[in-house]
Every structure is written in C-alpha cells, then in structure tokens.
Amino acid sequence: MSILKVIEYGNPILRQKSKEVIKVSKKIKNLVMDMLDTMYHYNGVGLAAPQVGENLRIFVIDVSDPSGPINPLVFINPKIIKKSGAINSYEGCLSFPKAYTNVRRYKNVMIKALDINGRSFIKEAKDGELLVRAIQHEFDHLEGKLFIDHCRNRFEANQVLAKYNLPPIEEDELVSEDFLEEEIIEYEKAHPEEVEKRNKEIEELETRD
Ligand SMILES: [Zn+2]
C-alpha cells in the first residue's frame, strides 16, 4: 500500500479521456488499494485514477462520517444509467488544493459499475446527497472533465482559482447546462435559507487550513 502523488490542475493528464479496464487484475486491485490509501491520507471524499496519473476508468469514494468506520466504494468501468433533477453543489477537488466553487449537478443518479472483485453492481444515489455529487464529480474525471467546467459563475470560479495560483478556467471546456441552471434558480428562490447556509459553509472551508 502506498500514498500516490496527486496530480494538480494544469497537468494535461487531467484532460484526457480514460480507458476501460479490460480485466480487474491483481495490478488493478493494487492500484485501487493505493488510491484508497491516497484518498484517506488527503482526507478526500473521492479520487479518480487520472488524478494519480493513470488514465483508467476507475474511481473510489467514501462519503461516511470521518469520525466513524470507513466505507470505501470502488467503481470500475462505471456508467451513469439514469440522472434527474438539479442542484447547486459547492465542490472542491484534491487536484485543486483549497479551491471551492459552486457547480451545477443532477440531483439523482443511478450508476452501474464493477467492484474490486470484478462483479457488476448498480447503485442509486438521491436527493443531492454527498454521494450523488461525488459520483458525478469522479465520473467526470474519467471523461477529462473537471468540476470547474460546471461552475455557475465564471467570474467567481476564476477568482477562486487565481487566489490559489491555479490556471484560469478553460472557456472551451465549460458545459452548457441551461436547464439545470433554470431549475436551480427556481429552487433557490424558494429556499433562500439554504443559499445562506451554503455560503457560510464555503466561507468556513476557505478559511480552514
Ligand atoms: Zn476531483
């Protein structure tokens, strides 16, 4: 088991599309174990193989409470088979040290993948919970997409990136998500208290060391 080096934003590896895993071999299992070690070491909620320099369709997630027992989830050759609803989600990424920004995501997803033993499984995540957001975030990494490509406000995203000396957003990578944006705006109009709560949480995250 070892802690791998996490590649940072600006490295072209993060923009490459990852390849399917042909066989869940011993080598792949070792990579998955190292990815889990790396994710826990850096207190991440998820980590995708390209982030450790392997353009393979693998990611790991653990959304359990950090004070409780671990609950690692492994997704190999994942496919999102259903998605619906819209939420605003503020996200960060181990490849973007300290930078958080508001992004658009689906509220519910269903995903099909192989586990570490090469067995197929289906997982459903709902209501905008952390797992829903993590699945979309990590899945994106396999497509060469990054959370900032879903930013709700380019100005805000660029400000955050500049603050941490990270390269600015690549305009041609931005995802057009007007229907998600419309749904989010409607929802936030009806729930201003949630917007306020989230803004406070972002502020706390940014001042944390
Ligand atoms: Zn990430």
Write the SSE topology.
Layout (H helix, E strand, L loop, with lengths): L25 H16 L4 E3 L9 E4 L11 E12 L2 E7 L2 E10 L2 E7 L5 E6 L4 H14 L10 H10 L14 H13 L1 H16 L2
Antiparallel strand pairs: 1-2, 2-3, 3-6, 4-5, 6-7
Explained architecture:
The chain is of the alpha+beta class. 33% of the residues lie in helices and 23% in strands. It is built from five helices and seven strands, in the order αβββββββαααα. The protein has helices spanning 26-41, 130-143, 154-163, 178-190, 192-207; strands at residues 46-48, 58-61, 73-84, 87-93, 96-105, 108-114, 120-125. The strands form two sheets. It has a five-stranded antiparallel β-sheet, with helices on both faces. It starts with 25 loop residues before the first helix and ends with a helix. The relative contact order is 0.16. The structure holds zinc ion (ZN).
Count, helices: 5
Q: What is the CATH superfamily label?
A: Peptide deformylase
Strand order of the largest sheet: 1-2-3-6-7
User: What is the 3D shape?
Assistant: globular
Strand content: 15-25%
Give helix % range: 25-40%
Structural class: alpha+beta
Write down how many β-strands occur, each being a DSSP E stretch of 2 or more residues: 7
Number of domains: 1
CATH architectural grouping: Alpha-Beta Complex
Q: Which molecules are bound in this entry?
A: zinc ion
Gyration radius, to the nearest Å? 17 Å
Unreliable spans:
none
Keywords:
209 residues, alpha+beta, Peptide Deformylase, 5-stranded antiparallel beta sheet, 5 helices, binds zinc ion
